[in-house]
Design brief:
Blueprint lengths: L6 H28 L6 H7 L3 H7 L3 H24 L4 H18 L3 H5 L7 H23 L9 H18 L6 H13 L19
Helix pairs in contact: 1-2, 1-4, 4-5, 4-7, 5-7, 5-8, 5-9, 8-9
Length: 209
């Protein structure tokens, strides 16, 4: 800090950081509920700032996408890299799927955003492509080790991930861990040759049907 600086001169910088954080939080919630094409003006309103402030921080929609999705995608990248590093392909798949579901349980709507078009956001598209390529590596190794059914293909995992994300959203308020049993059932459905024990069933989820 130079001698000419004062607490007052630093206040605008704190305001800038606070406004940016509010915008990112509001955008995360809006994107989770309405997708990446959610209108931007309500995001500014929810953050307590004007449209001009939003566009000053994020000149394009893609810039706002990046602020919301880059860190979670980097977390998924680290997760899939750790899964690929495991010698046992089945353990790697379970590690990845459970870790991804735990992230979705924390970041509402994140999995659905992962599958959305990312036109104009090359950095995010690059990260997602790397994740998909690594899932392909895990699936091929699992086939080589005869850890999963031979008729299970890479695209099945997108459906599995979206399926569990739907359970997480539907049961979030009644049983935040209900997804774990659902995932266990799915894993047994793709595993070869022997199943694994399931977690205890949720009585609360019986009210859904």
């Amino acid at each position: 800090m130079t001698g000419s600086e004062s607490p007052e001169s630093r206040t605008p910088r704190r305001d800038v950081l606070r406004n940016r954080a509010r915008l990112v939080g509001a955008a995360r919630r809006a994107f989770a509920r309405h997708g990446l094409d959610a209108p931007l003006e309500p995001i500014a309103t929810a953050a307590g700032v004007g449209n001009a402030t939003l566009y000053r921080h994020f000149p394009t929609r893609a810039a706002l996408w990046q602020s919301v999705l880059e860190d979670p995608l980097l977390e998924v990248t680290a997760l899939i890299e750790a899964a690929v590093a495991r010698t046992d392909a089945w353990e790697g798949l379970v590690h990845f799927l459970r870790g991804l579901c735990e992230l979705e349980a924390r970041e509402e709507g994140f999995t659905f955003l992962m599958t959305a078009p990312l036109d104009g956001a090359p950095r995010l598209a690059e990260l997602r492509t790397g994740i998909r390529d690594s899932i392909g590596v895990l699936v091929r190794r699992a086939h080589e080790q005869k850890a999963i059914r031979q008729d299970v293909v890479e695209s099945d995992f997108a459906v599995i991930i979206l399926s569990v994300a739907g359970v997480i959203e539907a049961t979030r308020d009644m049983d935040p861990l209900a997804w774990s049993r659902h995932l266990g059932i799915i894993l047994d459905g793709i595993r070869s040759p022997s199943p694994t024990p399931l977690s205890s069933p949720s009585s609360a989820c019986s009210e859904l049907i």
